[in-house]
Amino acid sequence: MNSTVWANGKRLGTRPYGWSSFAYDISELVDSADAITIAVRVDNDKQPSARWYTGSGIYAHTWIDVKDKIHVAHDGVFVRTSGDTVTLDAEVRNTTDVPKSVDVEVSIVDPSGKAVTTQTKSLEINSDGKQVSDFELQVSDPARWDLDTPHLYSAIVRLSSGGQTLDSATTRFGFRDIQWKPDTGMWLNGKNVKLRGVCNHQDAGALGAAVPDKILRFRIEQLKAMGCNAIRTSHNPQTPLFYDICDEVGMLVMDEIFDGWKKKAAHDYGRYHFRDWWQRDLSDWIRRDRNHPSVVIWSVGNETSGAVGADLVELCHKLDPTRPVTSGHSGSQWMDVYGVNGGSERVGWFDNLKTDRVFIGTENTHTWQVRGYYRTKTWYRDGGPDVNKSVHEIPDLTETEVFTHDWIREADRGHRKQVFNSSYDNATVRTTARHNIEQLRDIPRFAGSFRWTGHDYIGEASYVHGGWPFKAFMGGAIDLANFEKDLFYLYQSQWTDGPMVHILPHWTHPKVEARTNIPVWVYSTCSEVELFLDGRSLGKQQPGSKWNEMQCQWMVPWTPGQLKAVGYNDGKAVAEKTIRTAEAPAKIALSVDGEPLSSDGKDIVQVRVTTTDETGEMYPYGENRTFFKVIGPGRIRALGNGSPVDVEKHFRAESRIAFYGLTRGYVEATGEPGDIALVASCILGEKKQITSNKVHIDTQVLALRGDAPHPSIEVFYTTDGSEPSPESTPYTGDFSVPLGTTVKALVMVNGKPFQRLHERFAADEGFVWNNPSDAPVATVPGSEQAEDAELSGAKIKSQGKGFHGKGYIDFGQSQGAYVQWYQENDGDVRQAELVIRYSGKHPKRPGRYIKLSVNDRVVKDRLLLPNTRNWGNDWKTVRVPIRIGRGANTIRLTTVENGGMYIDEISIE
Length: 909
Fold this sequence. Notes:
mainly beta; Immunoglobulin-like; TIM Barrel; 6 domains; five-stranded antiparallel β-sheet; Glyco_hydro_2_AS
């Protein structure tokens, strides 16, 4: 947010919206200087500037465009197609001080590079003026841009005068015809297409918001492989390259520009700049993106409101009359397409849906899942059907919870929401991903649905996950490190056709009692699936079309061994997957996800580190630390693992703990020639020694560019806490250590010290292995703690008894002090009851007064909190009716006299 640019000390301008592409004309400076120094200042100091992580700085490509004084204007070409006809407008600028006559030539070039039609017109342009030249060209039988065959053409606009070329501009586009029909949704080239979409933010986990080109392409293609055909750019424009890639791979885009038309985060664009800048930013955005065939619909807001919605739609239509406009439940009365976020997940939503417009579920559905984590009991964010009639009933998979290991002890949670969520598609707000898939497929007027989200993202961890150390929103089908979750394969089984099978959960359960029935699910595109346990068939099943039959399920008594799923089409085996019970971790395996490093120049590669046992079977609880080092002209760009609670630094890190058996390394070439290899080393073993006290040390070398090196590797280690040296014990094989031991190791490469490793094995390290009675509750509705809220003039205390959470807030003797909670409402506007829990008394009056505001509007300027018996030991509640808006809400209690009651928590009912 708030970039200011200077050239040779001259201020060129300021743009407050960090998601907008922009340009400055520096021609006058170039005419008078031998060199140009560009300075850019980004001011993102006031935080939070959005409700999620934005990054700060220059996060995408920047370039200098050199043009003639007579040239095609920046983003000045607009291409539309209808059938075989191309309509093109070219805006030409004359920056000289005399009128000019130019020839404007337009050539259409097909995907093979052949010019298929050309047209030329003459144009008169006034001095220091601009003029639009319009063209209509016919192309015989053009190849269509479609999801599976995204053929791209180019329109080349050339300006010439007296036979001399002055300027040219190339614009890619596609021939595609789109219709929107209220009863059936979107039609692409005469075919009814459901928008099988996801919402995605800009960041890519450990890489932050400055996502390298190759990784951005990988992530989009990853979603395509899942069966996704549409992305909503939540809640801001993406980088120009994003749209180029979507054009190339056949990915549809709901292009969204704004989160709010007013304040939603404390220091966001909506608060400070929207009113003055929205027209400029929206105009620049549409001019930039309107030629992309992947962009099929504009979205102008998310869970916000205001009469300005009508103006936004009008300007969109003026700049691009070919695409409809929608929003995420914002100013819906003015939108061409009715978009609704989480409210569209409610039971009975489609029973009362009007049919006057196309409908899209702009955020549907909301489920949470942590890769590698399982629970058989259903979890609802806001309570199940017994307390919330709008949610779908999702039966528990077992009467008692089967899985009890966790990331932290129950007593150590900083907030009741700090739980991991199950990968069985049974942790949700209102519904399952399977319900949504069924509705989208079977309801004709349900045009499209965009789940929240495709990939996990950094930020918004307090609202759902209770705050630090949670740093990420875990709703993705893919985690922060680009590792696919089980949910990815559910979508793949329903949205793709190629033969596949996927088994969940893994088959390593050291703390589950023998013969306990475990729900084993198989997702498959095949017509029939057979499951084998240690070679013995457990029977065949056919995946169904109803939500609760999309997975094949067997209740398998737990015993160590091998599970194999075989998928059949027409009685022939076409796909299979085998998983085995893993022993204790003993090795790491290195591999590359996506494209390898290019043969020369700067590039980046994704390395997968898998924790395995001695046989090479993945150990699904792997959490040992891997140390990374590069040989050759490369370096570690960032490290990650997909964990939502790993708070170590990512950028230029040297080591990373594994998360459920996987670690991610991003290695980049620095541009110099030469072979590049990655050396990864790890001290392996069960941190809590739940089945084994054995320790292994493993070093692996992976060639990333050129020939694989074959270095001489020696390892020396200690178990007494001292630093190892070549005189320490040489590692020749596994060894045993008692709990409480820190193992340190020195890796020598070609006789020289290369890496130093460490790992601690103790009862207080790693995952928590609970008894069955210690399993967290399945449903976690309830309160918002005051100590987790935004405070001004108040302090957190924990003296006394009976308070909830880890404390309460004390206003002291301050007047005007406040506590403010943030509340996200992904449903409709609703009337609710605010319950305030407090303690304290006034020595002379029956209570103390406080001001209650919701969304900066005063609800009660003097709300009486009646006295309790004493301070900090006796707690009461008061109830106040309030109105909760869509999207972001703030609830503030402000002292109106010297001090106020202790505030423990609020809840909304």
